[in-house]
Design goal:
By secondary structure, the chain is α/β, with parallel strands linked by helices. It has two domains: about 5-115, no CATH class; about 125-345, Rossmann fold (3-Layer(aba) Sandwich), CATH 3.40.50. It has 13 helices and eight strands. It has helices at about 5-15, 20-35, 40-50, 60-75, 95-105, 110-115, 125, 130-140, 190-195, 205-225, 240-245, 270-280, 335-345; strands at about 145-150, 175-180, 230, 255-260, 290-295, 305-315, 315-325, 330-335. The protein has an eight-stranded mixed beta sheet with strand order 3-2-1-4-5-6-7-8. Strand 6 (about 305-315) and strand 7 (about 315-325) form a beta hairpin. The longest helix has 20 residues, at about 205-225.
């Protein structure tokens, strides 16, 4: 990650998130400080990132802000708490001066997160995007199915049905499996903190929904030890894992695989291989297999459009439908329910 690339991404983030006063102030200060020179916090961040690669333009700056948010959430004495609505503060006062001083004394754990962690953002609406295709495809057939999330983190998205429409038959889910390079234990305080840190400090309502989702999933995990099963597996190796570990020979069980903000971390060559491997993995499932990707559009340097793409195996590889598109800048959603329903019929 070069300074120039980081500044360009910060400035693009300002366009997208400019209506969030605290987040915009932090982004603006980071960009301005880097244009003036190379502050110590940047040199240390650069060292922390020297063995990391960021493909999506949103990865580095969102990780940096998540590390800031986590530090503030976890420190009752942080001077930034009075500016963060997530900590009971107000967004009506400019935090820039305090933030500048805060950056000069960042704790070691901050840079450890930059070195090792991945931002784990939670959106209740995106977490539930697997529910409509599951209802249209599997519930319509009365077909039980394995539900698998790739790059699942804590696996919280796998429990989106707990707060979903009561008409959805959750008993059809044969197993909930989350694959991740470094799975997180949902009930651990550090995981809860990191999940909260993935949201902007202004997103109080989303943080409230996150808390409710974590509590609901945790209760089920206390009642049912295998409610969510997590396994260590990087995204690029997930297709092979599925072939080895998810049984395909029962004609009365299907498979729904989904990933949210995951494959965008792969470059074009890696994604081409990954897509090819997923096609091979889904092929033996035939009419019982479905793959949902919720990712930023590829091929655009600063994409702000997220697309939910449905794929089904076919003799030629994969049938594909761009089911939903929503653009963060234009605040525009495109969804053809009838077309999606025909695709899943």
């Amino acid at each position: 990650m070069t300074k120039e690339k980081f500044v360009a991404e910060l400035e693009r983030a300002l366009v997208v998130l400019g209506e969030l006063p605290v987040t915009a102030a932090l982004l603006s200060h980071l960009a301005c400080a880097l244009k003036k020179g190379e502050p110590d916090w940047w040199l240390r961040a650069e060292r922390a990132w020297q063995d990391r690669r960021f493909v999506a333009w949103t990865e580095a700056w969102s990780l940096f802000l998540a590390a800031v948010h986590a530090d503030v959430l976890g420190d009752p004495d942080s001077p930034l708490r009075r500016y963060f609505p997530s900590c009971g503060g107000t967004s009506e006062v400019d935090p820039t001066g305090v933030f500048a001083r805060y950056l000069s004394g960042l704790p070691r754990q901050f840079y450890s997160r930059l070195r090792q962690a991945r931002r784990q953002g939670f959106s209740a609406s995106r977490a539930a995007l697997w529910l409509p295709p599951a209802a249209s495809f599997f519930a319509r057939r009365g077909l039980p199915f394995y539900l698998v999330e790739l790059d699942a983190g804590s696996g919280l998205n796998l429990a989106a049905d707990l707060g979903g429409p009561k008409s959805f038959d959750s008993s059809l889910i044969a197993a909930r499996v989350g694959l991740d390079p470094e799975p997180l234990e949902l009930r651990e305080p550090e995981t809860k903190l990191w999940l909260a840190a993935g949201s902007p400090p202004e997103a109080v309502e989303e943080l409230s929904r996150l808390k409710a989702a974590v509590e609901a999933a945790s209760r089920r995990m206390d009642e049912e030890a295998a409610f969510i099963q997590l396994a260590r597996c990087p995204l690029i190796k997930a297709p092979a894992f599925l072939r080895r570990n998810i049984p395909v020979d029962d004609p009365d069980v299907g498979l729904l695989v989904f990933n949210i903000a995951a494959s965008g971390r792969l470059d074009e060559a890696e994604y081409a291989r990954f897509r090819c491997e997923m096609a091979a993995t889904l092929s033996p499932w035939g009419e019982r297999g479905l793959w949902l990707e919720v990712e930023l559009l590829r091929g655009q340097p600063f994409a702000t459009t997220v697309q939910a793409t449905l794929r089904r195996p076919s003799p030629g590889g994969l049938l594909e439908l761009a089911a939903v598109q929503f653009d963060a800048v234009a605040d525009r959603v495109s969804y053809d329910a009838a077309r999606a329903d025909r695709f899943l019929a």
